[in-house]
Amino acid sequence: MGNRIVRAALLCARLLVIPALIAPFWFWNNGLLELEATQFVQRYLADRPILQKVFDPHINDIGTYQARELSYFFDYLDARVFAFFMNLDRAIFVPASSVGAGFLTALVIVWQTRRWPAATALAATLLLLLYLTNFIYVVTSGVFYRSTKPLLAPVLIATVLYLFNVLARPASLGEAPGGALQSRAQRARHAVTLFTLLCTLSLLDRQGFFLAVVGLAIVVMYWISRKASGGLVIAAGSAVVSMVVYNMLVGPALIRALNGYNPSFQYQNVRLAEILTTPQHFVRAAEILWQATRVLVGGLPSALAVILLAVALWRLQPWRRARHPTVGMLVVVALPAAFLLMFAIMVARHPAIYDLTDHRLWYYPLPWQALLLAGGTCAIGYSIRAGKAGTALLCGILALATVSNVTQWNSYRRDMSFSQWFRVVSQQSEALKASLQDGRPRPFLSPEYADFYQYCLRLSPALKVRDAATRQPVVR
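and the corresponding structure tokens:
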């Protein structure tokens, strides 16, 4: 009977993932349109060849070059999906890439836990629900902006889980006899998988390239400590080298050939020595990451969150349960340290990430939360030996934290409404949606949103008819 109840609970939890994924549509009334996106959409829908649009960082990234053309391609697809729905007279400001990223995240977790015992899979599914219901995910998914961070999240999760499966997965979770790297065919498959994941991370975002370098460091440490096959090291090294070559040579050559200019590398010049010697940047980065962690776990008070984290780590001790404890400990330490350094660089270059309340609760910390989801899933996998009582307690805590997440959505939205960026975006987006609905452009639309309303007249025949009707003189 107990197993039946657990399996029924697992089925219910997986079914709840679907409403969690579509919640941003409901909560944000079909989404919000970010200020910069009013220009991006028009540029991606312009009458130009698709390759010229994608390889044009001067237009797509406001003059900067970050070698993330894959994200521009998905931005282009977002614009095409928006135009499709506008032609049907439906103004949908939830980007398709965010919806796809959410479903991809769910699929990765379900695939990872497909052979786990029901109780352990239930805990991992509840952790997924915790991630999907936290406000940073909800607001990031509900704002039409860039595809970079939403798509980076599931690729990062897949990469971490891959490393877990290959480098540190305990035998109790179904490891094949002789280890995960037992045959030449398996080694080749793992090498190709790692190469693909790290290249995809890099092509989506500069954060992704930074994390690819960290991934290389992890497999090198594994190779040194275990004297294992160097196939993973070659794959990871090849991915990093390939992305450097793309960044320095291939990308600029394509941009020059397609659009006739050389991209500027000024944005990529990072004064790392200056950042490393400024503790304030690291303190602010730690504050952002800690706030994102608290938001993820239901807004718990800091002291209680620290206690629960310490108890969880002491109870699970994933580095001790791993096939190679040293490697497991290195992964546990290396990835958070890498994020701390990344955010210190980001804070140094974009102080608004720290200074503005809305920027702390939107977009930028999502990959960090994705790392916590992946790491938590790995830790739950190790807890296979923790016993039924411990697993039941963990599931109860995760369920309560998920409910807490949902109850705090309105509170976080109010906090963001007092910050200058979100106040403008939310007010202008609602005014634009009302204007599109009845064909009466609101007089208080800003120039950017008023121009976008005029552009939407070209996309929606029904809107054009409504707009023309409102401009006809009244016959007395």
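(Above: one complete record from the training split.) The chain is about 75% helix and 0% strand.
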